[in-house]
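New to this. Please check this record:
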Amino acid sequence: MRRPRLPSLPLVLAMIGLAIAAPAAEVQQHGLIFEQWVRDTFFDGYRPPSYTQPWDIPASANTRHGGVPVNPKAAKLGTPVDLGDALRQFAIDEPFILVVGFWRQEGDEKRFVNLIAPRIDPAVWRRLWGPITRADLERLDAVIKDRSLTPAQARAAAQKIKNAPPFTQATIVLNPKIDGQTQRRLQCSLRYADVFAHLVPGGNPEPQAQPALWGVPFPSAVASKPRSFAK
């Protein structure tokens, strides 16, 4: 069995430098840096030819951890894990690994303090959706994308639907994304407690002194200021 390829110190500094060199996008760089570290360390530096492909790391690139597709995510400790487009996530019918790096803000750095990589089988994934059907999702999605509704009307209509069965009976949380410009999307997420209850049963959700992924610790904190919102 091959040992995971550890990133060199110059590579780590270069990754961290990405966050410093791009202050406008600084608060987002930690996720990109974490995902790059996952690909470089465990998947031979795999680079997706397209960012619209179904999996960030396809099964063909996973030669050391079960030969199933992999999706890496970064999330703030204690907050939900954003999973992406709801219809795409609902359609998953194969085993996959969800790698999540949970970070904590420490000054102007984000430090990864809990790393998990559960393998999720289709039966487990389906249970998270409960009684929700594709038709239910399409109905909610259609309301969100109905351009005859103003953004405020669409938000109110979508909220009314998601706050009633079958959506309230599922573990997965549906997140309508509607802004005053062009964004009209239906995404989904999994609450922090539910990640550990359903995907990592028996796992420790607390910050770890030396968090590691497949025995390899993340090499450093990432320069990344706290997110601020314009008033």
Notes: The longest strand covers residues 96-106.
